[in-house]
């Protein structure tokens, strides 16, 4: 996010503070009329002020979804020079920016979880490996872990992290920017706060993000990912995975074999078709409610064409 007045000039590296952040672009890797390229570095000539002028990106990955939705692209960037921070979220304006590498939605979600878990601290008494064990961390940046089968871990403070690694485990992060992870068989992960991230990586796992700009990913076979809050993102990458975006301006991606996606009217849908060896044979992107694509209807990709499924 930058102004059109910014000049596209190469910048030599110097000894100065560098902040790693995440930036959103349109489908052409442009932002507000300014064209970027991966690997290039740019300098803004003029004042730098968050939400007003300079190059903009977000330190917390999922905050990017507040500004870029639907058919967007994302990248890891480095900001330096003069910096200006936003009061309401992790947006930073800078006089210099370098586009390091492009990442997809799954990479953005992974980065958000790493951001939160790396800052969270295990709360005494909030770790259990017993079957049917239950633990809860209520303070900001608290971490709760349940590793036994059917365990439950809850983190209710902002930037809290909840992990359930045993079979049938449940992880819930209810504070803003929380991270919930369920890695065992049939695990469930829920992030209900704004900009939360929920990941279910085990077989038949379920991940749900219900807050504004939340993101959910289900990477195991038969997994289900749901983003019900506005500007949310859901991604299912495992075999027969299902991704649903039910909030306004959401995005649902089904990239696994026999995957399916659905979305509320106006939500973006992304479908991938794979052969029996899981090689990609076709991809498709569309918007629910347009070009014959019905809202609140499941679609899968067959012979390169989206087809309705149950």
List the helices and strands and how they pair.
Layout: E1 18-25, E2 30-31, E3 34-35, E4 41-43, E5 55-58, E6 73-85, E7 91-103, H1 105-119, E8 121-128, E9 134-137, E10 142-146, E11 152-155, E12 161-164, E13 170-173, E14 179-182, E15 188-191, E16 197-200, E17 206-209, E18 215-218, E19 224-227, E20 233-236, E21 242-245, E22 251-254, E23 260-263, E24 268-274, E25 280-287, E26 299-302, E27 305-308
Parallel strand pairs: 8-10, 9-11, 10-12, 11-13, 12-14, 13-15, 14-16, 15-17, 16-18, 17-19, 18-20, 19-21, 20-22, 21-23, 22-24
Antiparallel strand pairs: 1-6, 2-3, 4-7, 5-7, 6-7, 24-25, 26-27
Task: Characterise this structure.
- The termini are far apart.
- The protein folds into two domains: 18-103, no CATH class; 111-308, no CATH class.
- The protein contains one helix and 27 strands.
- The protein is mainly β.
- The longest helix is centred in the middle third of the chain and has 15 residues, at 105-119.
- The strands form five sheets. It has a ten-stranded mixed beta sheet, covered by helices on one side.
């Amino acid at each position: 996010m930058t102004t059109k007045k910014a000049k596209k000039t190469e910048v030599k590296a110097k000894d100065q503070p560098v902040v790693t952040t995440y930036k959103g672009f349109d489908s052409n890797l442009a932002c507000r009329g300014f064209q970027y390229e991966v690997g290039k570095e740019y300098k803004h000539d003029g004042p730098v002020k968050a939400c007003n002028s300079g190059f903009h990106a977000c330190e917390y990955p999922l905050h990017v979804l507040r500004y870029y939705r639907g058919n967007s692209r994302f990248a890891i960037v480095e900001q330096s020079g003069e910096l200006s921070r936003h009061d309401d979220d992790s947006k930073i304006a800078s006089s210099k920016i370098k586009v390091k590498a492009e990442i997809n939605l799954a990479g953005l979600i992974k980065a958000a979880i790493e951001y939160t878990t790396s800052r969270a601290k295990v709360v005494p008494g909030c770790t259990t490996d017993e079957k049917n064990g239950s633990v809860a961390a209520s303070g900001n940046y608290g971490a709760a872990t349940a590793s036994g089968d059917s365990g439950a871990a809850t983190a209710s403070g902002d930037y809290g992290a909840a992990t359930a690694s045993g079979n049938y485990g449940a992880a819930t992060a209810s504070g803003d920017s929380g991270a919930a992870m369920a890695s065992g068989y049939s695990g469930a992960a829920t992030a209900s706060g704004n900009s939360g991230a929920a990941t279910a990586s085990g077989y038949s796992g379920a991940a749900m993000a219900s807050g504004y700009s939340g993101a959910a990913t289900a990477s195991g076979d038969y997994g289900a990912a749901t983003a019900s809050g506005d500007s949310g993102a859901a991604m299912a990458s495992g075999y027969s995975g299902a991704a649903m975006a039910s909030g306004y301006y959401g995005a649902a991606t089904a990239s696994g074999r026999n995957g399916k996606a659905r979305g509320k009217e106006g939500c973006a849908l992304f479908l991938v078709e794979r052969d029996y060896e899981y090689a990609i044979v076709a991809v498709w992107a569309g918007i629910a409610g347009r070009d014959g694509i019905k809202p609140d209807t499941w679609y899968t990709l067959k012979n390169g064409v989206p087809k309705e499924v149950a």
